[in-house]
C-alpha cells in the first residue's frame, strides 16, 4: 500500500477532527489540526491587544508574525499533538469561545495564512498524514491522494460545539454557539484568500444522520480504497 496525504475540509464543528484523529490512529498516520494553528495566532493577537470586539490592528499583527512560533508537541498520555505557542502549551486556552469569536478575522489575513500554510506543507513532506482544516484540499495539498469534505446542518454542528464547550466548563448559551458557528462559516467561505470551498475532486460526507461509528466505518472504507 501507498503512504498518502488525507485532506479533510469542511464547515466548523462537522466532526472533522474526531474522524481525522480516528483515521490517523487506525492508519498509523500523523494527525494535524490546522485550526489549532490559526487559533494560536489568534490567542497571541488577543493577548497583545491587536484584536478586540471593536477593532483589529492588522498591521501590528503582521509586524509581529516573525515573533510567533507555533508548533505541536505530542502528549504522551493521549498520543495527540498539542499546540505550543512561543514555548508554552496553550491547548486548553485556544478552544474557548472567545478565541473562536476572533479566529476567522485573523485567518483572513494573507500573511498569517502564508506563514501557517508553509509550516503545514513541511509537516506533510513525508506524507502519512491526516490534516483537517478549511483549505487543505484546495491550497495546502492540492495533490492530496484523498480529499474529504464534511458537512452537517448548522443545528447539528452548533449542538456538537455547545456540548463540547459545556463539558469544558465554559458558560455559554446554545444561541451564542450557533451564532458563532454560522458567523465563522460565513467569514471563512467569503474571505478573498483561500476561502472554504469543496475541492472539485473531494468526496462529500454529510454526517447529519450518521452515528460516529457509521461515519468512521464509511470513511475508513473510502480511505482503504485510496491506499
Ligand atoms: O477547525 P477550527 O474550527 O478549530 O478552526 C478555527 C478557524 O480557523 C476557522 O473557523 C477558520 O477561520 C480558521 N481556519 C482556516 N484554515 C484552516 C483551518 C482553520 O482558515 N485550514
TrEMBL record:
Catalytic activities: CMP + ATP = CDP + ADP; dCMP + ATP = dCDP + ADP
Keyword Cytoplasm appears in the UniProt entry: yes
Entry EC number(s): 2.7.4.25
Gene3D superfamilies xref list: P-loop containing nucleotide triphosphate hydrolases (3.40.50.300)
Entry similarity comment: Belongs to the cytidylate kinase family. Type 1 subfamily.
Location(s) in or outside the cell: Cytoplasm
Any one GO molecular-function label of the UniProt entry: ATP binding
Cited NCBIfam families: cmk (TIGR00017)
Keyword hit for ATP-binding: yes
InterPro entries: Cytidylate_kin (IPR003136), Cytidylate_kinase_dom (IPR011994), P-loop_NTPase (IPR027417)
List of residues binding ATP: 10-18
PANTHER family in alphabetical order: CYTIDYLATE KINASE (PTHR21299:SF2), CYTIDYLATE KINASE/PANTOATE-BETA-ALANINE LIGASE (PTHR21299)
Biological process according to GO: nucleobase-containing small molecule interconversion; pyrimidine nucleotide metabolic process
Domain Cytidylate kinase per the UniProt entry, residue ranges: 6-224
Keywords, ordered alphabetically: ATP-binding, Cytoplasm, Kinase, Nucleotide-binding, Transferase
Gene Ontology CC: cytosol
Record-annotated membrane-spanning stretches: none
Protein name: Cytidylate kinase
